[in-house]
Each structure stands twice: as structure tokens, then as C-alpha cells.
Amino acid sequence: MTDAPIPGPIDPPARLLMGPGPISAYPSVLRAMSAPLVGQYDPFMTTTMVETQQLYRGVWATSNEATLLVDGTSRAGIEAALVSLIRPGDRVLVPIFGRFGHLLAEIAERAMAEVHTIETEWGQVFPPSVIEEAIVRVRPSLLALVHGDTSTTMMQPLDEIGAVCARHGVLFYTDATASLGGNEFETDAWGLDAATAGLQKCLGGPSGSAPITLSSRAVEILQSRKKIEAGIREPGDPSAPDAVRSNYFDLGMILDYWGPRRLNHHTEATSMLYGARECARVMLLEGRSAVIARHERAGRAMLEGLRALGLAVFGDVAHKMNNVVAVEIPDGVPGDVARAALLEDFGIEIGTSFGPLHGRVWRIGTMGYNARKDAVLTTLAALEAVLMRHGVAVPAGGGVEAATAVYAGAV
Fold it and tell me: In Å, what is the CA distance from 270 to each residue of 23, 60, 67, 92, 331?
């Protein structure tokens, strides 16, 4: 017991989240999450789960029956995929071009894999030939590859990688947390066996639910590692060499929960389910290709606006994601102080970065609900004011003018 006063109700300040994620959620997603709860086996709950699976098949561009949600942030989806697909001692190849490749390698190591990595300079991506050479040399059972890495803003092309994996009998997993919904993504056409994401970026929701899709080949692996007896799941032997090293993230068990038998595994995060369903519904209602085009236009407008303010863009722009851009912080400008001014004076959040880019770049996102003209122009106008405050010579209105030209079709 303490004598501390009881705080008031939650009352967050108004923010325009223009960083690398999380972002401002679609209003309809927030409304959906406030809907009444029902029981875990209520017919409405089962119907909602089935609808959500079907909607995400459209989002992922797949016919995979095993398309569902993992309850948890995007990292929960990553961990579920890797610990469930990797058997102890499996060789796993992880090409690393940013911070989140290191994350995949760490999780694979925790799953007791023999992890092999290749690396390229931050701001670059891998040619398919380099990945194939590494596959031939390492002979992995699984390739784990980030699609879009927000730490560098780069997007690794995947369209040729699936064929490479198929030629060599390698399972193909990608982390699409930062890219799904705002960039081209073709699960079936690209030959992916597993892919995971989160809601908090281009899908326009809050962090806390991880969409995942699995090929029939991946499902076969999951089915081979589970134990069911008389319709009731029994605890596995944790010392068994083939046991999945997690109960909560055992995708074989989670698939049974989402499947027609609805075998008990955990209590579904009902409000997050509602929100995830709405994220997918909003995207497909607008049109999948239209949403990707909206992200491309907003990203291009932000890019041209930042260039017009005299800011240098980091990395290979030809491989930049639509939804986030990194710019070099001008000499003499304290990066964190300027970010704080944007937040305190304008209510706008942009991001810093990690590792070799810490303190060197700002990362500015245009994704989900915020991939729209007014959000882009407001951010550019506010950034111009902050830069001028720190003595940077910028053309008055230059950023807004350049972005407006993109929306007018002049660029």
C-alpha cells in the first residue's frame, strides 16, 4: 500500500507519428478495438477468426490455408516462425543488411540452429547471385531474410530468391514487418514458405498482433513436430531432440487453435483480433494495389520534399522502401534536440537510428493512415522551421512545394 494519488484516465497528447513505426492508427481500427468482447468459443468469435484469415490471404496475396495471427508484437510472429520451423542443429542462412537481420540470426541461434550469416554495407542490399552463392556454400535448410529493414530503410528484392531456394531445396522465410501493405509483396508468386508481419507500420494499426502465412511445405514441418493424443494436446517432452522449444510460439499448436477443431491453446487477444481484422478490411476495401500506390506517392513526395530542403538521402534510393526514408542530419544540428523540438512544438515524431547510423540520420515514415498529403506537407513545414531555428539555410517553403508537385503529378 502507498499513499500515492491514483492517476487519472489515459489521456495521450495529440501526436502525428511520422517515424519508422509505430504510426498513427486508422480511426476505424481504434473503433473496432473498442467493440464488446465475446467468449473464446462464441460463434461470433469463430466467425471473426475465419473472416480474418480470409482477409489476410488477400493482404499477403496467397492461397495458403495456414494464414492467421500470432498474438503478440511483430517479433512474436518472427519467433513463432523460427522456433517452429527450425530443428536443433539445422543450418540457417541469414543475409544481414541492417539491424533486423541480426535479430533473425539471434532468434535462430536461440532455436539451437547452426547459424551462418553474410553481410553487406548498411544502405545496400544483396544481389540474388550473392545469396545463391552462400546457399550453395552453406547448404542451409532455411533461408531467413528481412524484406524491408527500417534501420536502413532498404528493401531486399525477393522476386528471384524463391526460385533460388526451390532449386536448392531450402525453406524460405521473410520478415515483412516494415514492408507489408505499403510495398509490392507476392507470397505465392515469390515462392515464400513463411512470412510474418505486424500491424504498426503500413497496415495502420497498433503493435500487438502478428499476421503470418505458411505454405503447405512449412505446415508439413510443423505437423511433424506436434503431439496429439485422443484429441487432447499433451505436454511434449522438452528433452526430445525434435521438440519445439516454446509452448506459446509452437505454430503447430496455434494452427490447431485456429483450425476447424479449435483445440485449446491460449486465450485469443480479442480486441487485437478485431483491430487486425479491420486493418486488413480497410486495405482490401481501398484496394491492395491502390494502397501500395498511395504509399509510393506519399513516400516519393516526402523524398522530394526533403531533398528540396537540402537534406542528403542515405543509402541506395533505388532499393528504398516506399514508406520510410533516411536523411543525413545536417552538420551542426543536434539530431535529438531537433527531434525533441518537432515533438514538443509541433506534435510530430520522427525517428533516429541504430548502430553505425545512430546520431547520423533521421528516419521519416509515411505509412498506413499517415501515407497522405496533409501529413507529408505538415511534417515538411515543421521540419523546415526546426532546421531554420538551428541555422540551416533552407529555401522557404521549398519542401512543401516539391512535395505538392509530386501530388500534382508534375514529378
Answer: 21, 22, 17, 34, 48
